[in-house]
Design brief:
The complex is a heterotrimer.
Chain A lengths: L1 H21 L21 H12 L1 H4 L15 H4 L21 H7 L18 H12 L30 H12 L10 H13 L5 H9 L7 H9 L2 H13 L17 H12 L4 H10 L8 H6 L16 H21 L18 H10 L12 H6 L8 E4 L1 H5 L13 E4 L9 E4 L7 E5 L18 H8 L7 H14 L20 H13 L4 H9 L2 H4 L6 H6 L12 E2 L2 H12 L19 H5 L35 H4 L19 H9 L1 H17 L6 H10 L5 H20 L1 H8 L11 H15 L6 E2 L1
Antiparallel strand pairs in A: 1-2, 3-4, 5-6
Helix pairs in contact in A: 2-6, 8-9, 8-10, 11-12, 13-19, 15-16, 20-21, 25-29, 28-29, 29-33, 30-33, 31-32, 31-33, 32-33
Chain B lengths: L1 H25 L8 H7 L2 H4 L1 H15 L6 H23 L6 H25 L5 H27 L7 H5 L9 H13 L18 H6 L16 H7 L18 H12 L16 H10 L15 H7 L4 E5 L7 E5 L20 E5 L7 H9 L5 E3 L7 H5 L9 E3 L10 H6 L5 E3 L7 H10 L4 E3 L4 H9 L11
Parallel strand pairs in B: 2-3, 3-4, 4-5, 5-6, 6-7
Antiparallel strand pairs in B: 1-2
Helix pairs in contact in B: 1-5, 1-6, 2-5, 4-5, 4-7, 5-6, 6-7, 9-12, 12-13
Chain C lengths: L10 H11 L5 H10 L1 H4 L3 H4 L15 E7 L13 H5 L7 H4 L6 H4 L13 E4 L4 E4 L3 H5 L4 E8 L5 H10 L9 H9 L9 E7 L24 E2 L18 H22 L3 H23 L6 H7 L9 H13 L4 E7 L7 H25 L6 E6 L3 E2 L16 E2 L3 E6 L7 E3 L1 E2 L6 E3 L2 E2 H11 L9 E3 L2 E3 L15
Parallel strand pairs in C: 1-7, 1-8, 4-12, 4-15, 5-6, 5-7
Antiparallel strand pairs in C: 2-3, 4-11, 8-11, 9-10, 13-14, 16-17
The chains are: A mainly alpha, B mainly alpha, C alpha/beta.
């Protein structure tokens, strides 16, 4: 009887268990509920600091004014101290979470006690809490912020994928891939590869000759000669300059109120020159920061310092000069921070930096380097300036036509007139004070030129001026300069930098996905004399760079953001590249280099609608150029800050009011409209169509030829089918309505090459289809 | 014989598991559990039901003097241990452990160990009446509490709290000022520190007498003299002031709350005062009436739940559905005129008809098919039919929309025939019917029927005229 | 950067769907869930930072904003801030005690005297509220009981660029997203076929100051939140019109080919960005139809045209833009930003002011009336005002017929109507000189906080993390001005 009962119970138990198994009771909880496993050793920089800085530093960080309960958490010495407001207790007791108030508060369920407090709208995830616990258990080790430790060359790892490795870059990348159980993608098709190389190095599609040579080279794998060939082309300098102009916030107008013309273009020409000469990066920076202070400073060195005069300058009547002078200096300091050091210095302008160990004092010490420029400030308003051709505020240099034929032969002075360019000098030494709460009219303590020692103490032997600053910036032990540049080059090629937040290497910035690789490349870059072409080549010769960009479902699942680079990136080109692509592929491109900025097509009335009314100087109204000036590369398009070229801004170009190092990469309907209806695009389609019709005799080859001209590859049969059919339809349409053909091919100022209108129109639309493909405006 | 066997075969596992359990509990902080163990933990929610049933069973049997079979007791003990251990595994994944979880863990362990003790007594024939009964009683109690904590861990603290608990925040028609209004304020903002446990500044704010007595620095409340009442003084201090209450980091009182406290004290800080006792012009009464207003969203509680996936599915390029606010099930729907209009455009709305409180169909060429769907949206409070082709026939279908507060029908073909329907819309507050066939007489009738209704018949003719005629200061002679 | 997904849909909506789909699991794992990650089941503020965009934090009063920005800064002393004392003490020097240390622009810093200058126009009281309005604005006077005049606005900036940038982006230096972009970011599109933030510009006869695209830029927010400049003339949106010789059906046909080839390539590359590109092309195609349709004011009846004034038929005028604004509002555009230039009266103020007023007075008032009769005023917030005020003393030589006023940041007037704002009140007061605020000051941050509040957004919770910092429109300040909420 009893046994029966027992057996009965046991049977029911078993029964229930089996049932519940079937009913999926024990299935693993769905995605998102599962936490990543805790790391063996919790790393302060990579695991803990992000949590602390994101959730705690606002009140327990470097900013003394906002500090709560007198507890500072970003420094080891203070974090381990006894809590001033609760004697006998400690924020962190290494090895003992239970005794660490930090942990106590973090896990508390008492709303009065829990940290971060409810009102902060912040909350730690259980995983973060566990990390903190484990970190404290492991002794709560603090480390200097990773980016402030000078890079060291780690030994290049050896992986079982060594046969796929082409150089050190791959070793580091593959190591991470294997950790995640991934394999690199195969090499990209040769057509895609040559297109990728050409776009990355010259910003233009490869010329048909280059492509044919490349495809002809049956040896196959040898990319090096082609890379060299591309690096040697002058378009390389233009490509690199394009990117640098965002950093240098270059524009052809003063910005602010009236926003009239300034003649800075010779500086832009110098940058192109510098890149094409492959000037070492440290020298490149030194000239721009302090060329005027170099012992034997010539015109070129002076010209280079225009870098720090590219900031907006007000011409608004009735401004207070001191106020704006301070804005200009602030801008220079911020540009140094964001563009060269990868630090959000500006955050330390009004108060100690909330997250990075930068004090307000540090900020104004850097500020003081740039505070001695003999700026006269507003001399005349836009109208007077226009009348007197006053296009450069003092201090400036004058470049004579002679010079632009001699020492400055890279300055393309087509007008043959004297041209003034704003430059730096130190001829108005000023005493710098801390601005309380950042207000220019609320002076605090005196400060003198110096740099944050947390990054690298300012060597005694260096002069305390911009030259010394330049030496400090390019010092071999400066942990930031090389890293930041290498990272930006990486971002240029891979969309994301190894540090995704290219503008912020500070505590709040993202952490490097491949810290060792970043350090290795940076060190290697410095060891090779800051040689930019070398750096590019190094990366481009890696298997990583040469991978196919196809994304398999597995890869998308494993690494949607493609941070591990198991495949090459695939992303939309910049507005400039897109326009240049159309110009080049249609054969419209005018390859003239340098010179005053030009005025290509722009929807009528844009400037007129927003200017200050009436005649307000040179840039009040926009009159398109004529002839081949319309077809210059986009970096020569005149840049008016208050209304930059719309066909660039729709593609996320910044307005150049301040230094920008990372453009968004959006995808909007306005872009679709610009690609369809911008005169330039239509004209390119037309001219390309006409050229094809003229060169290709066999009508059956028209569409394939068109295709190859635009996409640098031969069409697949189904693609061809679609396009052929479309071309035929269109042709019939236009034969039915010739007047439409006439209207359509009237697009653009470029001469009508006299091909049959209907044919032209039909092929033009076919070209438009191709120009509007995602593939066309994307680097694959 | 069966007993003997069961005795022997069970001793080892029970002993082993007991040791293991104790070990786990003692050295918890040093354990890093392998994933498999974590997986074992997932069994807990299932296994736990057996010991509960079995334990209660055996205990009651025991208490009723029935003979408890050793086998049964064995199984019970085993299941109890198993539950406790799996429970521990599961809990170990939920770092950091909250108080609830800790209580649950230790109580659970206690149950298991107590069961083991009983089992041990039984093995050694020591389970004579007194001990056994005591154990059994304790077990029953423990099982209850443990279970309850377990419940709270999974379903939230108040999952068993009586409905009144939830009704608590709802204020009755004629509330006690102190009991129903003041107390909740204090409980939300003050009691977390000034309670019997903490007694910050020796002040208790849990009942009126204590408030009048006050704390270290004097009475918190002085009846009739707000300015003398420390409570208010502290509350009024600038936020950055050390003395300000609630202290830095705590949620401060709202102006309304402060005003309420102030008036209540001014009126004598009585705990018998009711809303109806207040004079009409007494600011406090308006303040409290405000509190009486239903909290936002409450009126929509009864609406059918609706996942965002539904919204994403139903939304189209020309039809936008939006929750009226985060986490509300009430929908606002706007439809825009597509280039090729198709009467079936609203079909998708059938599914969520009862969630829609606001529907904007302005400018659409509405036909019977659409109007039929509109008539399904019985919770509509706001309906925009202006500039549509709606006519009396189509409008008839809307009788059912009794919750309608606002109706836009200007620039339509509605005539007096639609009045009957409007007459039924008791709740209607705003009506826009200019540029329709509806006669003034009909409207004034409607106005009599629904006095609260505002009828908009377009811009006041006088003003309109003056706009159409008059121009702003002419510039004669001023241009130069 | 978080949130910079490029999906056609709002990324967070998608995440939400994802999240909800995960809730479809048995109570068993729900129990586990609550054990393993309590936060997931805790409701409350932490969740709010990831507020699903396109859904207000709480039920909003207003669905959309029409901001009638008077660029150049109209004088409060000739519009809504009546100061008889200036007449009594006309010509007297502004007492230093009143000015106390206010910094001056370079234009009057040199002036030795600051002679008080009364308004050239008369003031009368209007409406039940008895609001004071100058004769320059007879039509706005007629809607006195529909609007809320704020006479106590103040700012820090004393020059146009920083001041207008402050008003439009919450910061004096450029680089922050503009008000409209924040709204678009916080509330999303109501109409999928139109941009959620549009800009219309017009210019009067008066001395005007420039406008800058940065004023409607989305700053560090995704540029789909950027203000779209709607222009008079055929290309109302840049590149909107197809080239001649290409019909709608031709375009459709062309786009179908593009889509077909893109789809093939999507299969080939597996890059979903291509799908979203296709979606963007479709929206562009729809915009090509919906925008001209909305912009076509010929559809408006004569009586409406007359209401806004004959100008409303002339594209590009302020009146036309007001009418345009109403049509856009009807079609679900979230934020409609108008700029009317020409309010910078450093000299010749009486004449220029009259001219500017002629441009805007009637149309502004008509807009409010029109919205009201359409029952749209309740959920449309209308704002009228400039970037700062003007001095109570005259700039240049003293001539009551033809004087000028310099920039004045300490006190100026704007008005708001509808969208949860209390009608028929005047809020805030300045001293008898109209120089300093003596009651209920409203800072730009407060102004922004209030707008957001009425749109159902909590200005402290709508944040965007950029360069490691959570940015807010109101930065670290701002209080909702409760007293003017209806």
């Amino acid at each position: 009887m009893k046994q029966k009962l027992g057996i009965l119970i046991i049977l029911t138990v078993l029964g229930l268990l089996i049932y519940s198994f079937k009913s999926g009771f024990f299935d693993r909880p769905p995605q998102g509920y599962i936490e990543p496993p805790l790391p063996e050793v919790v790393d302060y920089n990579f695991h803990i600091k992000p949590i602390l800085s994101d959730n705690c530093y606002t009140c327990h960080g470097p900013d003394a004014n906002k500090r709560k309960a007198g507890y500072r958490l970003d420094l080891e010495e203070t974090a381990l101290l006894e809590l001033p407001e609760h004697p006998g207790t400690f924020g962190i007791v290494p090895g003992n979470p239970a005794k660490s108030m930090l942990y106590e508060h973090v896990i508390s369920e008492d709303p009065a006690m829990v940290m971060p407090p409810k009102e902060s709208n912040l909350a730690l995830s259980p995983y973060e809490k566990k990390l903190l616990k484990k970190w404290i258990e492991q002794g709560a080790v603090f480390e200097k912020h990773w980016a402030f430790i000078p890079p060291k060359k780690a030994t290049v790892p050896t992986t079982e994928l060594s046969e796929l490795q082409q150089n050190e870059v791959d070793a580091f990348i593959f190591e991470k891939l294997l950790e995640k159980g991934l394999k690199p993608s195969p090499r990209a098709d040769r057509e895609i590869l040559i297109r990728r190389l050409s776009l990355d190095i010259t910003g233009l599609p490869p010329s048909p000759e280059l492509v044919s040579d490349f495809m002809a080279d049956n040896a196959g794998t040898a990319l090096e000669p082609f890379i060299d060939r591309l690096l040697a082309s002058p378009q390389y300098g233009e490509r690199m300059t394009q990117v640098w102009l965002d950093v240098a916030r270059y524009a052809d107008s003063h910005g602010y109120q009236d926003d009239s013309y300034r003649s800075m273009w010779p500086w832009r020409d110098w940058v192109i020159h510098a890149f094409n000469e492959n000037m070492p990066y440290d020298e490149f920076l030194t000239l721009q920061l302090a060329g005027d202070l170099l012992p034997d400073a010539g015109k070129e060195q002076l010209l280079a310092t225009g870098f720090n005069r590219n900031h907006p300058i007000t011409q608004e009547g009735g401004v207070i000069q001191e106020e704006y002078q301070s804005y200009y200096v602030v801008d220079r300091a911020n540009t140094l921070g964001k563009g060269i050091l990868g630090l959000t210095l500006e955050c330390a302008k009004c108060h100690d930096h909330k997250y990075d160990p930068l004090s307000q004092k540090n900020y104004f010490e850097i500020y003081s380097f740039f505070n001695n420029v003999d700026e006269k400030g507003l001399q005349m308003d836009a109208v007077q300036a226009a009348n007197q051709r006053y296009f450069a505020d003092a201090p400036y240099i004058t470049i004579s036509p002679e010079e632009s034929r001699g020492v400055l032969d890279f300055v393309n002075n087509t007008e043959g007139k004297k041209v003034n360019v704003m430059v730096m000098n130190d001829s108005a030494p000023r005493q710098t004070y801390i601005f309380n709460r950042g207000a220019y009219d609320d002076l605090g303590e005196k400060v003198y030129p110096n740099t944050p020692s947390i990054i690298l103490p300012f060597p005694e032997e260096f002069p305390k001026n911009r030259l010394g600053l330049a030496k400090w910036v390019t010092h071999k032990d400066n942990p930031l300069t090389a890293r930041v540049f290498v990272n930006r080059i990486w971002a240029m090629l891979f969309r994301n930098g190894l540090v995704v937040t290219s503008e912020d290497f500070g505590v709040q910035g993202s952490l490097p996905t491949h810290p060792q690789l970043l350090d290795w490349l940076s060190k290697d870059f410095m060891e090779h004399g800051w040689d930019i072409k070398y750096l590019l080549k190094k990366i481009m010769l890696s298997a990583t760079y040469q991978q196919s960009s196809k994304a398999t479902p597995e890869l998308l699942e494993a690494d949607p953001e493609n941070l591990l680079l198991a495949r090459a990136p695939r992303f939309r080109m910049s507005g400039e590249m897109i326009r240049d692509y159309m110009l080049a592929s249609s054969g419209l491109l005018n390859r003239e280099m340098g010179g005053p900025s030009v005025r290509p097509y722009q929807p009528a009335g844009l400037w007129e609608e927003t200017n200050a009314g009436g005649n307000r100087g040179v840039l009040t109204s926009y009159t398109e150029d004529t002839g081949d000036k319309l077809y210059r590369r986009s970096l020569y398009t005149i840049w008016k800050r208050t209304l930059p070229p719309p066909n660039m801004t729709v593609f996320d170009a910044p307005n150049r009011d301040f230094c920008e190092v990372r453009r968004q990469n959006t995808n909007t309907p306005l872009q679709a409209l610009a690609l369809q209806n911008d005169v330039q695009m239509l004209e390119a389609a037309r001219v390309l169509a006409q050229r094809c019709i003229m060169t290709v005799k066999d009508p059956n080859l028209l569409v394939p030829h068109l295709f190859e001209r635009i996409l640098i590859r031969s069409p697949k049969s189904e693609e061809l089918k679609v396009l052929e059919a479309y071309y035929r339809d269109a042709l019939e349409q236009f034969r039915a309505k010739p007047e439409n053909a006439q209207k359509l091919i009237a697009m653009g100022a470029y001469e009508d090459l006299g091909t049959a209108p209907e044919k032209t129109a039909a092929l033009m639309l076919t070209a438009q289809v191709l120009y509007n493909l995602d593939e066309t405006i994307t680097k694959e | 014989m069966g007993q003997k066997n069961s005795g022997r075969w069970a001793n080892f596992p029970i002993f082993g598991m007991t040791v293991f359990l104790v070990f786990c509990l003692l050295f918890e902080s040093f354990l890093e559990l392998p994933p498999l163990v974590g997986w074992l933990g997932h069994w807990h929610p299932l296994v736990l039901h057996f010991p509960i049933v079995l334990l209660l069973l055996v205990c009651i049997m025991g208490l009723l003097g029935k003979k408890v079979s050793t086998l049964l007791l064995t199984v019970t003990t085993l299941s109890a241990l198993l539950t406790a251990i799996t429970g521990f595994f599961l809990g170990s994944k939920a770092l950091p452990k909250g108080n609830l979880l800790l209580w649950h863990q230790w109580l659970g362990a206690a149950v298991a160990l107590l069961a083991v003790i009983w089992y041990w007594l039984r093995q050694n024939r020591l389970d004579k009446r007194p001990f056994a009964s005591i154990i059994q009683v304790i077990l029953i109690v423990l099982v209850g509490i443990t279970g309850h904590y377990g419940g709270m861990v999974t379903h939230g603290e108040d999952f068993l709290a009586l409905p009144i608990g939830n009704e608590g925040d709802k204020i009755p028609e004629d509330p006690f000022i102190y009991g129903h209004v003041v107390v909740p304020i204090l409980e939300n903002k003050c009691v977390s520190c000034h309670n019997p446990n903490k007694r910050k500044g020796e002040l208790l704010m849990t009942d009126l007498d204590q408030l009048l007595i006050g704390g270290g620095t004097g009475p918190a409340i002085v009846a009739n003299v707000p300015e003398k009442s420390l409570l208010l003084q502290r509350v009024h201090l600038p936020v950055d002031d050390e003395e300000h209450m609630p202290p830095d980091g705590k949620e401060p009182l709202t102006e309304e709350e402060i005003a309420i406290l102030e008036r209540w004290i001014a009126l004598g800080a009585s705990d018998t005062l009711r809303l109806t006792h207040l004079k009409a012009d007494e600011p406090l009464s308006t303040l409290i009436k405000k509190q009486l207003m239903p909290q936002d969203g409450n009126e929509y509680r009864s609406f059918p739940k609706m996942a965002d996936s539904v919204l994403l599915r139903l939304g189209t390029d020309y039809l936008t559905l939006q929750r009226i606010s985060a986490n509300s099930n009430a929908l606002a729907v706007a439809v825009f005129l597509p280039p090729q209009y198709d009467p079936s455009i609203l079909e998708g709305l059938r599914e969520v008809a009862l969630n829609i409180v606001s529907l904007d169909l302005s400018g659409l060429p509405l036909g019977p098919q659409e109007m039929e769907i509109v008539s399904l949206c019985r919770n509509l409070e706001r309906l925009e039919l202006d500039r549509t082709l709606v006519n009396d026939a189509g409008f008839k279908g809307l009788q059912g929309l009794t919750k309608l507060k606002l109706l836009k029908a200007y620039d339509t073909d509605l005539t007096d025939a639609s009045m009957a329907v409007l007459q039924q819309m008791e709740g209607l507050q705003q009506l826009y019917v200019w540029d329709t066939q509806i006669s003034g007489a009909a409207l004034s009738q409607l106005k009599d029927r629904l006095p609260a209704l505002q009828i908009n018949t377009g811009i006041d003719p006088g003003i309109k005229e003056s706009f159409i005629q008059g121009d702003t200061v002419s510039l004669e002679g001023t241009k130069n | 950067m978080e949130n910079d997904k490029n999906d056609s849909k709002d990324p967070l909506k998608v995440n939400r769907r994802h999240f909800f789909s995960q809730l479809s699991v048995g109570i068993g794992s729900l129990a586990l869930g609550s054990l393993l990650i309590p936060d997931l089941f805790k409701t409350g503020t932490p969740a709010l930072e990831g507020q699903p965009l396109g859904i207000p934090h709480f039920a909003p009063k207003a669905k959309r904003v029409i901001y009638l920005f008077q660029s150049g800064a109209p004088s409060q002393l000739e519009s809504f801030d009546y100061k008889p004392t200036l007449l009594k003490r006309m010509g007297e020097d502004l007492p230093e005690s009143v000015r106390n240390g206010q910094r001056l622009t370079g234009m009057t810093a040199g002036q030795s005297k600051f002679p008080l200058m009364p308004s050239a126009s008369q003031f009368k009281q209007y409406g039940k509220s008895g609001a004071w309005v100058s004769d320059y604005f007879p039509h706005i006077a007629k809607i006195a009981d529909d609007i809320c005049i704020v006479r106590s606005m103040h700012t820090e900036a004393i020059n146009h660029d920083p001041a207008i940038t402050f008003f439009q982006t919450g910061s004096q230096q450029s680089g922050r997203p503009s008000l409209g972009s924040w709204m678009s970011y916080g509330l999303g599109n109501e109409n999928q076929n139109l941009p959620s933030f549009v800009v219309l510009t017009s210019r009067g006869q008066g001395n005007s100051q420039g406008l800058y695209s940065k004023l409607w830029s989305s700053g560090f927010l995704d540029s789909k939140h950027q203000g779209v400049l709607l222009r008079s003339g055929k290309d109302s949106v840049l590149y909107l019109n197809d080239p001649e010789g290409v019909s709608r059906s031709d375009k459709r046909h062309l786009l179908d080919q593009v889509a077909a080839l893109n789809k093939m390539h999507h299969v080939e590359t597996g890059d979903d960005e291509i799908e979203s590109r296709i979606a963007q092309y479709e929206m562009a195609y729809r915009m090509q139809m919906s925008v001209p349709d909305v912009m076509d004011i010929k559809k408006e009846p004569e009586s409406i045209i007359k209401l806004y004034g004959e100008d409303s038929q002339v594209p590009g005028t302020y009146a036309a833009n007001c009418l345009q604004a109403r049509r856009l509002a009807e079609n679900g555009v979230r934020f409609i930003q108008l700029y009317h230039q020409g309010w910078d009266q450093h000299g010749n103020l009486p004449n220029e002011m009259a001219g500017q007023a002629k441009d805007v007075d009637k149309a502004s008032a008509a807009l409010v009336l029109d919205l009201k009769q359409r029952g749209m005023l309740d959920d449309t917030l209308v704002i009228w005002g400039g970037e700062f005020g003007r001095t109570n003393y005259c700039q240049g030589n003293f001539d009551p017929k033809n004087y000028g006023r310099d920039h004045h940041p300490r006190a100026f007037s704007i008005w708001m109507a509808g969208g949860g704002i209390k009608p028929g009140i005047s809020y805030g007061e300045t001293d008898e000189f109209g120089y300093n605020i003596v009651k209920d000051p409203v800072h730009i941050n407060d102004f922004h906080a209030t707008i957001m509040h009425n749109m159902g957004l909590d200005h402290e919770q709508l944040t965007y993390k950029y360069q490691g910092r959570r940015f807010r429109l109101t930065d670290v300040a701002g209080n909702v001005v409760k007293d003017i909420l209806s």
